Amino acid sequence: xxxxxxxxxxxxxxxxxxxxxxxxxxxxxxxxxxxxxxxxxxxxxxxxxxxxxxxxxxxxxxxxxxxxxxxxxxxxxxxxxxxxxxxxxxxxxxxxxxxxxxxxxxxxxxxxxxxxxxxxxxxxxxxxxxxxxxxxxxxxxxxxxxxxxxxxxxxxxxxxxxxxxxxxxxxxxxxxxxxxxxxxxxxxxxxxxxxxxxxxxxxxxxxxxxxxxx
Length: 214
Fold this sequence. Notes:
By secondary structure, this protein is an all-alpha fold. It is 71% helix and 0% strand.
C-alpha cells in the first residue's frame, strides 16, 4: 500500500513541476531589427551594401507587420522574406514565424523551423544555439528526454549565453526521465547561482524545494 502512495506522491510532484514550469516558462522571441547605415568617407561599395541592408530591414519590418492580419498571413510574409534575405535577417524572420506558429498551437512546426535555423552554417552561432534551445523547448513535453538533453549539453557550458535556460530545461527533462535526484541537484545549483536571472533562480528554488522533500 505504501508503494501506491509513493507513486501517487511522485505523480503529484511531477504535475506541480510541470505547472510551475509552464506558468513561468515559455519564450517568445522579440523581433530584432538591425539597421546598418553608411557613414561618410566609405566607398560606393560600402554605401551600397549599407543601403541594401537598410532596404532588407525595412522589408523585414513590413513582413513582421503582416502578422496583424493574422498568424497565417504573418508566417507567409516572413517565409517569403526569408527566402531572399541575408542569413542573419532571414533567421530573424524565421524566429518570428516560429513564434507565430506557437501562437497557433503548432509547436511541432515551430520546432522544425528552429531546426532549420540551427542547421544553417551561414547563420551566426548565437542564433543557431538559440534555435537549438527553442527547438528543444517545443519538444520538452513529448520528445525523448535523453536525445533532447544531448542537444542541450553544449549550451550548458559556462561560456554559453543561453546556459541558464539550457540548464533549467535539462532539469525539466530529468524530471520527465524520472531522475528526480538529478533534477533537484540542477535546480539547486541554478537557485544558488547569483549570475542566473532572477526569474530562473526563483523557479529553480521552487522546484529544488519540491524535489528536496522526502
